[in-house]
Amino acid sequence: MARTYTPSLPIWCAGCGHFGVLNALRSAVRDLRIPLHEVALLAGIGCSGTIQNYLGTYGYHALHGRVVPTAIGVALADPRLTVVAAGGDGDGYAIGAGHLIHAFRRNVSLTYVCMNNETYGLTKGQSSPSGFLAGDEGSFDGPLAGLAIRGSTFIARGYTGRPEQLARLMRAALEHSRERRGFAFLEVISPCVTYADTYPDWEHTLYDVDADAAYSSGDRALAFSTALRLAEDRRLPIGLLYRAAEHAADASAPAVPASSGAPTPDLVARYEELLGRYAVRSSSGAGAAR
Ligand SMILES: Cc1ncc(C[n+]2csc(CCOP(=O)(O)OP(=O)(O)O)c2C)c(N)n1
Ligand code: SF4
Ligand SMILES: [Mg+2]
Q1: Domain contains 290
Q2: Is the pTM of this model over 0.85?
Q3: Residues 6+ apart with CB under 8 A from 235
Q4: What is the mean pLDDT of the chain?
Q5: 141 phi-psi bin (left φ>0, alpha ψ -120 to 50, beta other)
Q6: Which of 158, 209, 233, 287 qualifies as a cystine partner to 169, CB 3.0-4.6 A?
Q7: Adjacent-strand bridge partners of 39
Q8: Ion ligand 3 residues within 5 Å by Cβ
């Protein structure tokens, strides 16, 4: 396909953390010299989910909570693509949590960026499962959940308040999946300045394992115990938390051949016919597919 798109301008509030995620992703794609037409950026539903409109890559807006399985399908169907899934903490840790667990287990090579602002920004500030700072019911910790699954191979957490480290982690995540070492999971603390402005609190809450000479990101048990120990002091680790040394390399994924090219006219006609069956009918009986 030769069709290209002009990215739109972000609609996020001024100061939204998600700008920092977009910058890190843009610079990682540029630094790794990945042609835009070889990148598929899929996103969930939420303020975070609009990120796929802002890069000149292929983009797809998935159903709420379904960005990870959709991205797995894309990655298996065309292994030539650099596949990036992105979405919010509501998208990934609430409605999409079941998919996340099995993505760690299956270890298909793609990058998943979970933009964690501890709230449902788009729907105006309801609390999300990841309220580490404000959660009344305890918080769901995506990286910790990933560490608990033996098949996981890359787990990191960045913070939009530390853009250089975030750019480095984003690059490392893309490299991990492009080298076909498996599922690269990067959670980014990306505050929502409108409904849950947590920026003032993170500097004394985060603990940077990248700056700790005694820390080893190849040691899963150490990563796990460090996170648990920090949590007792109400602190959260950031940095490259865990990367498997060995090349797990899509070993668990079924071998699906790369797509042989564009869909044939016959397939397109069958697809249109199928869509027509689900067209929404107005009261006058006229059909309009949405
Ligand atoms: C099936 C379904 N349930 C609920 C919603 C309503 N909804 C839209 S976005 C959203 C959560 C957004 O929060 P998050 O994923 O954290 O993204 P953010 O806006 O914070 O970036 C919800 C519950 C929906 N669109 N679809
Ligand atoms: S509501 Fe929050 S998450 Fe959404 S764009 Fe504004 S600051 Fe960002
Ligand atoms: Mg959110």
Answers
A1: no
A2: yes
A3: 205, 206, 207
A4: 90
A5: beta
A6: 158
A7: 82
A8: 88-90, 117
